Amino acid sequence: MTVLKQYTVGVLALQGAFKEHIELLQAATQTYSDLNFKFIEVRTPEELITCDSLVIPGGESTAMSLIAERTGMFEPLLKYIQSDKPIWGTCAGLIFLAKQIINGRPEQKILGALDIQVKRNAFGRQQESFESPLDFGSFIPGVDNFPTVFIRAPVISKILETSYNKEFIPIESIIDNQDQNIIYSNNKDFQNNSPVQVLHKLDSGLIVAVRQGKILGTSFHPELTNDFRFHKWFIDEFVLKN
Ligand code: GLN
User: Fold this and answer.
1) Residue 1 falls inside a structural domain
2) CA distance 95 to 54
3) How many domains are contained in the chain?
4) Is residue 77 part of a domain?
């Protein structure tokens, strides 16, 4: 009898849309009969260390950071980032992974896994929440009409320069208030050695999806649709290639 390798994908379940991620991950892997997946809600350090990959959902990044600290999960999450495993943050999850945030709250802590600056609540009041079909065909083959959901969404306002990234070319979103009220991550122990790739910019010039090596960040919520193609791409491109 052959023993199938098991892939454990955790979804951080401190707060936010974690159940939705688990449902779409399950739907996305239904046809993988030759692989063995386990999708778990992660609330404790013991659960976190069993994960081969991690998803950080949308929700509220200030609450997520406070709950992480209160439940003793913040330090284990910093360690997890150093372990060089795939991670995907959506919306509040993207904010939690950034190195700098604009419009952050003073007590808010961030993990500093992605060399980016993120602006919270970056769309004006009129456009606080909206849905838009986007073309991701340049990085997900055939996916040219994906239903994206933006809810009080952040954007990536800057790609940050780092000492090891010699080929750095400054890329900025078209955005106001660049340098107001910035919160910095103090994760000094971690250096992501891959360059930041911009995966998607809106027509307005705002950057809404990036990848830096094994870490993926999106401003929008593929978990709040019933289209599992984005989750399938995460499994194929990040989880299975690791
Ligand atoms: N604005 C929220 C925050 O700052 C993110 C919103 C979301 O995840 N839908 O955390």
Assistant:
1) no
2) 15
3) 1
4) yes
- The confidence score (pLDDT) of residue 165 equals 58
Q: Is 211 annotated as a binding residue?
A: no
Please, how many CA atoms are within 13 Å of residue 196, restricted to the half-sphere of its CB? 28
Closest CA relative to residue 238, chosen from 194, 191, 201: 194
Q: Assess whether 221 carries a catalytic annotation.
A: yes
As given in the structure block, the two tokens for residue 155 are 């954007």
* Residue 184 forms part of a structural domain: yes
Query: Among positive and negative, which fits the CA dihedral 86, 67, 111, 59?
Result: positive
Q: Is there a contact between 96 and 203 (Cβ–Cβ < 8 Å)?
A: no
CA distance 10 to 204: 34
Place of tokens 């688990």: 22
Q: Give 59 Cα–ligand 1 centroid separation in angstroms.
A: 5
Q: The tokens of 236 are what?
A: 């194929």
Question: Is 223 a known active-site residue?
Answer: yes
pLDDT tens digits, one per residue of 125-145 = 777 899 999 999 999 999 999
Please give the number of the atom of ligand 1 that sits closest to the Cα of 64.
10
> Is the distance from CB of 118 to CB of 131 less than 8 angstroms?
no
Q: Which domain holds residue 37?
A: 6-239
Q: What is the CATH number of the domain that holds 118?
A: 3.40.50.880
Written as one string, the DSSP assignment of 118-166 is EETT-S-GGGSEEEEEE--TTTSTT---EEEEEES--EEEEEPP-TT-T
**pLDDT of 73 higher than 60:** yes
- The values of phi and psi at residue 77, to 5°, are -70, -40
* Angstrom distance (rounded) from CA 181 to CA 177: 9
